[in-house]
Automatic annotation (TrEMBL):
<keyword id="KW-0012">Acyltransferase</keyword>
<feature type="domain" description="N-acetyltransferase">
    <location>
        <begin position="6"/>
        <end position="156"/>
    </location>
</feature>
<protein>
    <submittedName>
        <fullName>GNAT family N-acetyltransferase</fullName>
        <ecNumber>2.3.-.-</ecNumber>
    </submittedName>
</protein>
<dbReference type="InterPro" id="IPR027455">
    <property type="entry name" value="Sper_AcTfrase_N"/>
</dbReference>
<dbReference type="InterPro" id="IPR000182">
    <property type="entry name" value="GNAT_dom"/>
</dbReference>
<keyword id="KW-0808">Transferase</keyword>
<dbReference type="GO" id="GO:0016746">
    <property type="term" value="F:acyltransferase activity"/>
</dbReference>
<dbReference type="Pfam" id="PF00583">
    <property type="entry name" value="Acetyltransf_1"/>
</dbReference>
<dbReference type="InterPro" id="IPR016181">
    <property type="entry name" value="Acyl_CoA_acyltransferase"/>
</dbReference>
Length: 156
C-alpha cells in the first residue's frame, strides 16, 4: 500500500514546531523518542553525524526520520544507521512509514552503502514486525540492550 505524496523535507524555522508536535501512540512511547528529544540528541552528538528530515504527506508533516550518516567513529563507524523513524499516531497504518523508509533506503544506497542498519528495544508492541516485513534481518548484535537489524542491498 503506497501512500501518495510522501516525501522528506528539511526541518526549518517554518516547520520545526509542527514537526516537534508529532506524537506516537502511548503504547509506542517506550520504543520511539520524541522529535524534540531526537533533535536535542542530534545536537549533543555531532560525532554521530546526525541527518534528519520531516516526513510529509502533501503539505502536512506526518513523521520524522533521523539517521547516523556514516559516522567517523563508534560502533557503526562508516555505516548508515536508522536512529529514529516516527509516524504520528493520526497517520499510522497508511503506508507512510514504509514509503519514508523506501525513500531513505534509496538515499543510503545512492550514497554507496550496501546496507542500512537500525535497532529496536524488544517488548510488547515492538517495531520488529514492521522492520521484518520491510526486509530487515537481525545481525546477532545487541547495542545498548537493543537488537540490531540489517537491511542488505543486493548488488546492482
Amino acid at each position: 500500500m503506497r501512500s501518495p505524496g510522501v516525501h522528506l523535507r528539511e526541518i526549518t524555522d517554518d516547520n520545526r514546531d509542527a514537526v516537534r508536535a508529532l506524537r506516537v501512540r502511548g503504547d509506542q512511547k517506550q520504543f520511539v523518542a520524541s522529535v524534540s528529544k531526537s533533535l536535542k540528541q542530534a545536537a549533543r552528538t555531532p560525532e554521530a553525524n546526525p541527518w534528519y528530515r520531516a516526513v510529509y504527506r502533501g503539505d502536512e508533516p506526518v513523521g520524522f526520520v533521523m539517521l547516523s550518516w556514516r559516522p567517523p567513529a563508534g560502533p557503526f563507524e562508516g555505516r548508515h544507521f536508522l536512529w529514529r523513524l516516527l509516524v504520528d499516531k493520526r497517520y499510522q497504518g497508511r503506508g507512510i512509514g514504509r514509503e519514508a523508509l523506501t525513500q531513505i533506503a534509496a538515499l543510503v544506497r545512492a550514497d554507496g552503502a550496501t546496507e542500512l542498519l537500525t535497532s529496536y528495544e524488544p517488548g510488547d508492541g515492538e517495531p520488529w514486525p514492521f522492520y521484518r516485513k520491510f526486509g530487515f534481518e537481525p545481525t546477532g548484535e545487541i547495542d545498548d540492550g537493543e537488537i540490531v537489524l540489517r537491511l542488505a542491498f543486493p548488488a546492482p
